[in-house]
Amino acid sequence: MGILHDDVVIITQAEKEGDPSVITINCPDKTGLGCDLCRIILFFGLSIVRGDVSTDGKWCYIVFWVIGSPETRWGLLKKRLVGTCPSCSSASGISFYRSELQPPKPPDVFLLKFCCYDRRGLLHDVTGVLCELELTIKKVKVSTTPDEKVMDLFFITDTRELLHTNKRKEEVSDYLKSVTGDAMISCEIEMVGPEITACSQGTSFLPSAITEDMFDLEMPAELPSGSLTSRSVSVTMDNTLSPGHTLVQIICKDHKGLLYDIMRTLKDYNIQISYGRFSIKQRRHCEIDLFIVQADGKKIVDPSKQNALRSRLQLELLRPLRVAIVNRGPDTELLVANPVELSGKGRPLVFYDITLAFKMLNTGVFSAKIGRHLIGDREWEVYRVLIDEGDGLSVPRNKIEEQVWKMLMGWE
């Protein structure tokens, strides 16, 4: 006996401004479902302030209490959440994520060539339009000419899968025209093959000094003063409270995408959450209790596996992203990196937050690139932003680094 399609996701909007809205999800289960749902919620700019997850191994029931904004597109959010949930016909057995399985057909990639007269905040406004239209930026190359024009090359995919149509292309052009006005010179969109996107990024070289510091996957004995990390994180594991599950208890400070970072890590380890509870207390103090099992349905009893999972959770919550300001010859470059899921997806809205930080600081961007880099045994999405210093950098370097970190963590 199934359930109605409309009942898979039910959204009850808050009656008062500032109160949480409630998202209820009732569908077949699969490992990584919580991660996929949290990623969509993060993409729509919502903050999860409380959550309950339970499953019997075949069917799951999830409730998220979220804080949104008057601009939240609830109908579209529901559509995206429903599209992520497994179909009712898959409830006969739980589906564990396997990286070696044949991946689904990748979405078509399009090249958006956008030329415009430059101004401060332009890159963020363009990025905001692409996000609003559900266009995912896969790679970008932004450059500024001596005559104060910008040529932006965005390699994008369309969540709505309509960018091959003239109507959708005109919609994108019209939206960009609305935010740039007469400053827009041209806007062209064309489909490109994978060989074009691969060649467009140029060298994948990253200086060793950067990789050693930014991509260190070991838990430091102590954090250096002034380092850009989250606050202290406590992760404990207990096998005595449940005969069939390992209890993971996490205590930390809230940050943007916190639940996504936890779910993403568990998904990469192929861990199934049987029951979980998440809540934010006073002063953004978070407490998370998760009853988990391995892919074989058993608790984690191997001490080495426990230590590996505990260390990875601590590291991912202390440093969910990596941010650094470095010298690039006479210029200054910002680097931001975030780990890519085993499924190939990266954290949403990172470039949006970076460009918003630059706009708030009234600091220009001379060029920007996004690339994927395999460092160690993990893939990273690396954002490289060359700062427009003009007659001199008016904002201290550490201020830029701090502002970008605050925007990415939602601590503004």
Automatic annotation (TrEMBL):
Q: Which UniProt keywords apply?
A: Repeat
Q: What Gene Ontology terms describe what this protein does at the molecular function level?
A: amino acid binding
Residues covered by the ACT domain: 111-184, 247-328
Q: Which PROSITE patterns match?
A: ACT
SUPFAM superfamilies (alphabetical): ACT-like
State whether keyword Protease applies. Answer: no
Q: By its UniProt entry, which PANTHER family does this protein fall under?
A: ACT DOMAIN-CONTAINING PROTEIN ACR10, ACT DOMAIN-CONTAINING PROTEIN ACR4-RELATED
The protein's job, in short, is: Binds amino acids.
Q: Please state what the protein is called.
A: ACT domain-containing protein ACR
List the source organism. Prunus yedoensis var. nudiflora
